[in-house]
């Protein structure tokens, strides 16, 4: 077991908090899972229209994706979203969240809200 130095990694804490915040919504989890190595989209790029969350009206969901979820993921650096060609791809910080996505994927049967519809 590593010995504690008594220092606090505030930047590390902030980044971890951001990961949990991003993963707190099922649409954002679905987007990140679709871009991870655990899906057929191994090129790390997909049409934004491929994100098909079930439930509400499709037009409302499209607006939420474009005005809330894609920008939040892009601001965190987890995706790059090219609205002009309607493509979502892995962002420069995607590698930071990918281990957490792998952990969620590996334990999807044990975790609520993480299942085949998400992964």
From TrEMBL:
Source organism, top-level taxon: Archaea
InterPro entries reported for this sequence: WH-like_DNA-bd_sf (IPR036388)
Protein name: ArsR family transcriptional regulator
UniProt organism field: Halorubrum aidingense JCM 13560
């Amino acid at each position: 077991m590593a010995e504690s130095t008594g220092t606090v990694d505030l930047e590390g804490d902030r980044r971890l908090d951001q990961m949990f915040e991003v993963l707190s919504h099922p649409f954002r989890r679905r987007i990140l899972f679709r871009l991870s190595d655990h899906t057929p989209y191994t090129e790390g790029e997909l049409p934004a229209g491929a994100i098909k969350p079930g439930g509400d009206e499709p037009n409302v969901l499209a607006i939420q994706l474009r005005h809330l979820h894609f920008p939040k993921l892009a601001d965190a650096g987890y995706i790059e979203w090219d609205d002009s060609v309607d493509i979502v791809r892995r962002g420069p910080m995607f590698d930071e969240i990918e281990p957490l996505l792998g952990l969620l994927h590996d334990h999807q049967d044990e975790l609520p809200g993480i299942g085949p519809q998400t992964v």
